[in-house]
């Protein structure tokens, strides 16, 4: 994962001052006792100001380990088989679990298994959509560039153990050579996993973790625990200066010694041991010194370096420890420099807001300990035409051009750094008027009274990702509106409606090609007075980032037909007014009141009337079969009330008592 730079908060500074005041023997502080259950494996990582720890459960700390919150975690039933955890930012993280590679986009609240298997390690690439997963169960290295929708899988190494992305975008994997599990090699891919090249140099295989130097992609450190598959009865730290072509030993001990994990700050490196605390190198891996701190079992990754001096680690008993001064003597290094690439950014001509691509400005680090980003802003007369897509990232900035007027739009990207300097990138883009787009629909028939009618909305030209809105007009005596949904999914259109008139909005509608159906409007049909009725769809809006990017004057008309006759009309009225049962609980209620309908009634208005029949409150809700809705009635005084359910062609009453 590319090196991140983060500005430390005032809390960190205060904690550092407190740490400096403590005696030398107390440079490590136990900040959490018995936090996690040590069951073998497990990991810790730091990203974007958040500290994460995972064993059986997942924990989050926003104050460098002082306090922790438990989060939901996948695969809890299989103990001791979580091997790696990486977060790209505060929201997006990936975990290597016993039954697959899991991804979260909401800060660990929910997780999705995006790749089955039992991976040993995972990492992000230059963006959160690029993920690499290595699995010893299938000897595969899998890479996705679309967040797990599709994968490129290759056999790269026998039992791949660890994976990381370098700052230049290449992906590195360490694993055993084919047919020789006693020796391992470093492998690299520069095309997102399509092809891999062995770097050549053979080294002891049983090395659980490697780390890439913060300044030099060819300088790699490897932690060899030599416990599971011993080769020479030595536990060592290996170092390469040529990207894995050759290796040297930086530190060596007899078994069992190193735990097989590494953490890297700006310039300092940390390696945890099994019985002797933590070792630190302040000269880029050449020499290593014991700094005390917690020990842990082999094949664990319970250590994270926030900076050169702020390090958090877990021990074999489930405790979490922290040092604010590098274990006893703080490291001070001269700051490096940051350069933005490219130095100027010109967006392609003739761009519409919905068609504009994302452009990337990369922070190139010159030297070690380069400054981090303090703030990012767009300035200039056309500043509103350029949008920041990821202002919180610390290694790259993504920009979207959404012109505010026709012709040349000019602004500057201004990046203020933590050392007080400001880097500027001129921005130029050319805007044209939104293009027109048309839609069409189809006539629909159904010979089933009360049957479902799906009216399609079909695009006449290609359309990219955008927000879509439209308006529906229909005959309420014949049609009962159920809802609208994008093609291939459940009902999810946001609806604002009155009888016979419904406005529908779809956020983030996927792109579509010419003649693709992009959405449906769903009705139930009950013919009463004519064999065909008209549904009108108009007032189309296509927007992106709150800007109109496509214009459409389309007015769609769909003739909806069904059988006609006395019997059909009679059956329609009977079917439409069929008995609907409502469940209401709790009743009496103290303010929170839930309603469940035995049938789908679609968009409804719920009037809350007192014992005198006077409306005291109202709600607009969509009633779906067997799906509960909840009303907050805490603002009403005690008394007897009725809920009047206004749905298409019918009224229903639900009585309840409010007690406080």
How is this structure best described in words?
This protein is mostly beta strands and 660 residues long. Helices cover 3% and strands 48% of the residues. The chain is built from 2 helices and 56 strands. The strands form 13 sheets. Strands 38, 40, 42, 44, 45, 47, 48 and 49 form an 8-stranded mixed β-sheet that branches. Strands 14, 15, 16, 17 and 18 form a 5-stranded antiparallel β-sheet that branches. A 4-stranded antiparallel β-sheet has the order 1-29-28-27, with no helix packed on it. β24 and β25 form a beta hairpin.
What's the short story on this structure?
This protein is 3% helix and 48% strand. By secondary structure, it is mainly beta.
Beta-strand share of residues: over 45%
What average pLDDT do the residues reach? 82
Structural class: mainly beta
**What oligomeric state do these chains adopt?**
single chain
How far the N terminus sits from the C terminus, by CA atoms, comes to: 55 Å
Indicate the overall shape: globular
- Number of strand elements: 56
Q: Count up the helices.
A: 2
Radius of gyration equals: 31 Å
Largest sheet: 8 strands, mixed
Helix content: under 10%
Uncertain ranges: 1-25, 565-574
What topology emerges from the helices and strands here?
Elements: H1 10-21, E1 29-32, E2 43-47, E3 50-54, E4 58-61, E5 69-71, E6 84-87, E7 93-97, E8 100-104, E9 112-116, E10 121-124, E11 131-135, E12 140-144, E13 152-155, E14 158-165, E15 171-177, E16 180-189, E17 197-198, E18 203-204, E19 209-212, E20 220-224, E21 234-240, E22 248-254, E23 258-264, E24 269-273, E25 278-281, E26 289-290, E27 303-305, E28 311-314, E29 320-323, E30 337-341, E31 345-346, E32 358-366, E33 373-379, E34 386-388, E35 396-401, E36 407-417, E37 422-431, E38 435-436, E39 439-440, E40 444-445, E41 452-459, E42 466-473, E43 479-486, E44 494-498, E45 501-509, E46 517-525, E47 532-544, E48 547-551, E49 556-561, H2 566-576, E50 582-585, E51 592-597, E52 602-610, E53 615-623, E54 629-632, E55 639-647, E56 650-658
Parallel strand pairs: 31-37, 38-48, 40-49
Antiparallel strand pairs: 1-29, 2-3, 3-4, 4-5, 6-7, 7-8, 8-9, 10-11, 11-12, 12-13, 14-15, 15-16, 16-17, 16-18, 19-20, 20-21, 21-22, 23-24, 24-25, 25-26, 27-28, 28-29, 30-32, 32-35, 33-36, 34-35, 36-37, 39-41, 41-46, 42-45, 42-47, 43-46, 44-45, 47-48, 47-49, 50-51, 51-54, 52-53, 52-55, 55-56
């Amino acid at each position: 994962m590319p090196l991140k730079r983060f500005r430390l908060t005032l809390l960190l500074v205060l904690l550092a001052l407190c740490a400096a005041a403590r005696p030398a023997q107390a440079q490590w502080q136990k900040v959490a006792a018995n936090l996690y259950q040590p069951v073998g494996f497990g990991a810790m990582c730091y990203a974007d100001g958040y500290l994460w720890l995972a064993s059986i459960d997942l924990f989050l700390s926003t104050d460098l380990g002082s306090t922790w919150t438990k989060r939901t975690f996948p695969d809890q039933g299989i103990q001791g088989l979580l091997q790696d955890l990486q977060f790209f930012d505060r929201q997006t993280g990936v975990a290597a679990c016993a039954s697959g590679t899991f991804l979260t986009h909401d800060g660990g609240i929910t997780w999705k298994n995006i790749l089955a298997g039992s991976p040993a390690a995972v990492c992000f690439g230059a963006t959160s959509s690029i993920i690499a997963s290595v699995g010893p169960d299938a000897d595969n290295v899998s890479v996705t560039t679309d967040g797990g929708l599709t994968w490129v899988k290759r056999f790269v190494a026998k039992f791949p153990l660890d994976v990381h992305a370098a700052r230049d975008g290449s992906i590195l994997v360490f694993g055993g050579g084919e047919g020789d599990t006693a020796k391992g090699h470093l492998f690299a891919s520069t095309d997102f996993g399509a092809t891999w090249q062995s770097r050549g140099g053979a080294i002891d295989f049983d090395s659980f973790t490697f780390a890439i130097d913060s300044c030099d992609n060819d300088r790699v450190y490897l932690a060899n625990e030599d416990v599971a598959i011993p080769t020479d009865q030595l536990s060592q730290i290996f170092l390469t200066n040529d990207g894995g072509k050759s290796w040297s030993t930086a530190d060596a001990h007899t078994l069992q010694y190193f735990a097989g994990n590494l953490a890297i700050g700006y310039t300092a490196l940390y390696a945890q041991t099994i019985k002797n605390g933590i070792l630190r190198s302040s000269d880029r891996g050449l020499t290593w010194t014991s700094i005390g701190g917690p020990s842990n079992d082999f094949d664990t990754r319970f250590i994270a370096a926030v900076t050169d001096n702020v390090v958090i680690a877990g021990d074999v008993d489930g405790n979490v420890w922290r040092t604010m001064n590098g274990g006893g003597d703080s490291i001070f290094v001269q700051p490096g420099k940051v350069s933005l690439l490219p130095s100027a950014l010109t967006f392609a001509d003739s761009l519409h807001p919905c068609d504009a691509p994302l452009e990337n400005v990369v922070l190139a680090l010159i030297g070690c300990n380069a400054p981090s980003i303090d703030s990012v802003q767009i300035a200039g007369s056309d500043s509103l035409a350029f949008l920041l897509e990821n202002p919180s990232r610390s290694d790259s900035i993504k920009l979207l051009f959404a012109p505010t007027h026709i012709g040349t739009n000019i602004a500057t990207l201004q990046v203020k750094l933590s050392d007080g300097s400001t880097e500027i990138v001129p921005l130029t883009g050319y805007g044209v008027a939104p293009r027109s787009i048309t839609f069409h629909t189809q006539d629909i028939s159904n010979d089933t009274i009360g049957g479902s009618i799906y009216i399609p909305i079909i695009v006449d030209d290609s359309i990219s990702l955008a927000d879509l809105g439209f308006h529906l007009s229909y005959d309420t005596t014949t049609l009962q509106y159920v809802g609208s949904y994008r093609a291939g999914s459940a009902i999810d259109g946001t609806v604002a409606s009155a009888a016979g008139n419904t406005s529908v909005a779809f956020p983030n509608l996927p792109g579509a090609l010419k003649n693709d159906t992009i959405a449906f409007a769903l009705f139930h049909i009950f013919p009463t007075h004519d064999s065909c009725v008209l549904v009108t769809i108009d007032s189309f809006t296509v927007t992106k980032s709150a800007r109109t990017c496509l214009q459409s004057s389309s007015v769609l008309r769909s003739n909806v037909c069904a059988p006609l006759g006395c019997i059909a009309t009679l059956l329609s009225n009977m079917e439409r007014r069929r008995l609907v049962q409502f469940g209401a609980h709790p009743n009496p209620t103290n303010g929170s009141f839930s309603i469940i309908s035995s049938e789908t009634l679609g968009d409804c208005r719920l009037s809350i009337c007192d014992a005198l029949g006077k409306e005291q409150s109202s709600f607009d809700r969509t009633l779906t079969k067997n799906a509960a809705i909840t009303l907050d009635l805490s603002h009403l005084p005690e008394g007897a009330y009725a809920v009047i359910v206004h749905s298409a062609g019918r009224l229903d009453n639900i009585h309840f008592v409010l007690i406080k």
